[in-house]
Amino acid sequence: MQKAHRVRREIARLMVKPPEGVSCYAKEDSTEYILVTIIGPAGCAYEAGVFELDVELPERYPFEPPHVKFRTPIYHPNIDNNGRICLDLLRMPPKGGWKPTISLENLLTAIRSLLAHPNINDPLMTEIADEYRYNRFEFEYKARNFQGESKRKRDINSINVY
User: Fold this and answer.
1) Which residues participate directly in catalysis (predicted)?
2) Which of 22, 26, 86, 108 is catalytic?
3) If both were cysteines, with which of 38, 68, 70, 158 could 83 make a disulfide (CB 3.0 to 4.6 Å apart)?
4) d(CA 109, CA 18)
5) pLDDT in tens, 32-79
6) Does an H or E element contain 6, and which?
């Protein structure tokens, strides 16, 4: 009951006054599944990109962190090809930084910030982190074009041939 009340309150707050570049809503009036859209921050390789995320709140939320996954493919050192995110706020202590006081707004703001400031010291995709570190121009080119290429591939794969 406490979880449902907190989630409704947090979503209502996010709908009234969302953080910059973030929008979300409960999936089918659920208190367990939230759909999120993040606009890439200005001044980075993901600028103006539109990224969809799934957020699943565990039964013990806020005492356990949400499960967050990118639905939109992204070329990023801390996000793998399955959309999983390497971010300390998504892990329980002692290795992670999750605390029950962290709100969905704080978490989504941190994920959006991760787009502009990848953590190459704790990468999920080491090759991309190395590219970010040693060939920033190539990294930024791939990151800017990855979403468009992925969308074109999805569009091509969804065409029905008669």
Assistant:
1) 86
2) 86
3) 70
4) 10
5) 999 999 999 999 999 989 999 999 999 999 999 999 999 999 999 999
6) helix 2-16
User: Whose structure tokens read 């090809």?
Assistant: 81
- Share in percent of the chain as helix, strand, coil (round to 5): 40, 15, 45
86 is catalytic: yes
Burial status of residue 29 (CB atoms within 10 A of its CB: 0-12, 13-18, 19 or more): exposed
Q: Hey, what are 129's tokens?
A: 């982190």
Burial of 120 (0-12, 13-18, 19+ CB in 10 A): middle
* In the block, residue with structure tokens 């990855």: 146
Angle, helix 126-134 to helix 136-157, in steps of 10 degrees: 140
Angstrom distance (rounded) from CA 80 to CA 78? 7
Q: Is 118 helix (H, G, I), strand (E, B) or coil?
A: coil
Please give the single-letter amino acid code of residue 62.
P
Alpha helices in 34-86 (DSSP H): none
Rounded to a whole number of angstroms, the CA Rg of the chain reads: 17
Q: Which two tokens stand for residue 98?
A: 């999750």
User: For 97-136, how does the pLDDT look when each residue is reduced to its tens digit (9 = 90+)?
Assistant: 999 999 999 999 999 999 999 999 999 999 999 999 999 9
